[in-house]
Specification:
With 119 residues, this protein is mainly alpha-helical. Helix content is 79%, strand content 0%. It has helices at 3-25, 34-48, 52-68, 71-83, 92-96, 98-118. Keywords: Signal.
Length: 119
């Protein structure tokens, strides 16, 4: 089996495990855990200034994203974003696969909608 084959198997297994964990801990598919919301808001605050207005806008932004993207797809997109930055053959599938592009596009559309509604 090639390296790409192994990477695909590992990604599929990790995705399945994350999905099981998400279903077990969330009341429904769009119920983002508090920690995910806080992590997003923290990063947003760092990018947009740490003001009271930014707190309102960033918390609004993650609420909009959560209303548009199921949590498991959000986790997938965040994983793709992280792994696509890996400089090696391991990051390649995350930069070139159709599934990765689809997850990223869904998140980017939701972020654009959040930008319009909240900022």
């Amino acid at each position: 089996m090639t390296l790409v084959g192994w990477v695909r198997r590992i990604v599929a297994t990790l995705t399945a495990l994350m999905t099981i964990a998400v279903v077990a801990h969330a009341q429904d598919i769009n119920d983002y855990p508090t920690s995910a919301r806080v992590e997003y808001a923290f990063g947003c605050l760092k990018a947009n200034g740490e003001t009271r207005q930014a707190i309102e806008q960033c918390s609004c932004s993650i609420d909009v994203i959560a209303s548009l993207v199921p949590y498991e797809r959000y986790v997938t997109a965040e994983t793709v974003l992280s792994m696509s930055q890996v400089r090696s053959d391991l990051g390649g599938p995350f930069r070139t696969s159709e599934q990765a592009a689809s997850a990223l596009n869904e998140l980017r559309r939701a972020q654009a909608e959040a930008e319009v509604r909240c900022f």
